[in-house]
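Hi R.,

As promised on Friday, here is the backbone we talked about, encoded as structure tokens. Could you run it through your design pipeline when you get a chance and send me back a sequence?
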């Protein structure tokens, strides 16, 4: 008998299914909403447990910095747990979201940290040469320098890890599967700017170029560790080592530093990368990064339909982002 099944038209998915499922599985927007839902739920649970934060830090060390460390103890596991759940659903690991744990505090991290401390030091040197920055006197005793230096380093490592993984990790990866790397980077930059920059009345060009620098680092290194090291070291240098931040009381800062001059020279209320000197250093740093890391390593990974309840066992394709 003839095989009539070969002449039947392919079955089309229903309109409802097409809303949720595309050619590569569950659409990126829905996966992102699932991730954000998980984060919000776990943040709510952590908020109910907030009295425990005070128990994590001895009373003599309680400060905005130490309080931030305690919050980071909750925030970082929340983000990693939410990504882990999504990874189970998508058949992926944290490494595919840009955070290979086997490289924790490895070569890429310390390379990024070196770049960060050198770049912030150049910015501060240019500000000092133009007489808009003065280091002042030491604000801490030798013993407290070590204590607060370590506390600030932990704080900015927590901040870098949580910020980088949230915006540049799962969110960036998921949007990349839906629209491509650089369009996703542009969208995340707009959201990041709205959340972190505008409320602080920053000069936007420098911080936005900082995001471009970090996206280029992600694209060329293939993971987040360079960016995490850079982020943590730059902020540690600006806030503790050179004591430039004006947005919090000078608790646990190395110097009684002072900034004088207009915002475009000092970076304004928050940080020196918003200054014209920060922009200059970021431009030069971006050019050097592109020269030293010429090849894109960030993988554009398509989702196997078997991870989404389908029947296909098509292997994952890996194509570098140009």
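Update: got your reply. Pasting your designed sequence below so it's all in one thread:
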């Amino acid at each position: 008998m003839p095989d009539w099944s070969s002449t039947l038209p392919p079955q089309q998915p229903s309109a409802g299914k097409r809303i949720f499922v595309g050619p590569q599985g569950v659409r990126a927007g829905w996966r992102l909403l699932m991730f954000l839902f998980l984060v919000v739920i776990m943040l709510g649970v952590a908020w109910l447990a907030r009295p425990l934060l005070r128990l994590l830090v001895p009373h003599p060390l309680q400060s905005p910095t130490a309080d931030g460390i305690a919050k980071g103890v909750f925030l970082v596991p929340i983000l990693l747990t939410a990504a882990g759940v999504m990874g189970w659903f998508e058949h992926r690991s944290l490494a595919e979201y840009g955070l290979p744990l086997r490289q924790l505090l490895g070569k890429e991290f310390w390379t990024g940290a070196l770049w960060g401390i050198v770049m912030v030091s150049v910015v501060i040197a240019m500000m000092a040469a133009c007489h808009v920055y003065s280091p002042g006197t030491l604000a801490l005793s030798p013993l407290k320098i070590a204590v607060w230096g370590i506390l600030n380093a932990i704080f900015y490592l927590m901040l870098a890890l949580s910020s980088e993984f949230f915006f540049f990790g799962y969110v960036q990866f998921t949007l990349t599967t839906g629209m491509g790397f650089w369009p996703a980077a542009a969208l995340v930059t707009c959201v990041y700017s709205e959340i972190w920059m505008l409320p602080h009345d920053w000069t936007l060009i420098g911080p936005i170029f900082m995001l471009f620098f970090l996206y280029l680092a992600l694209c060329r290194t293939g993971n987040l560790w360079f960016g995490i090291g850079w982020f943590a070291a730059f902020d540690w240098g600006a806030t503790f080592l050179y004591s430039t931040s004006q947005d919090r009381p000078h608790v646990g800062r190395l110097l009684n530093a002072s900034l004088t001059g207009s915002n475009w020279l000092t970076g304004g209320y928050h940080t020196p990368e918003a200054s014209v000197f920060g922009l200059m250093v970021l431009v030069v740093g971006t050019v050097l990064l592109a020269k030293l890391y010429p090849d894109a390593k960030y993988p554009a990974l398509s989702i196997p339909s078997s991870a989404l309840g389908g029947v296909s066992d098509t292997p994952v394709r890996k194509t570098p982002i140009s």
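One thing I noticed while checking it: Residues 168 and 224 are 7 Å apart (CA to CA).

Thanks again,
M.
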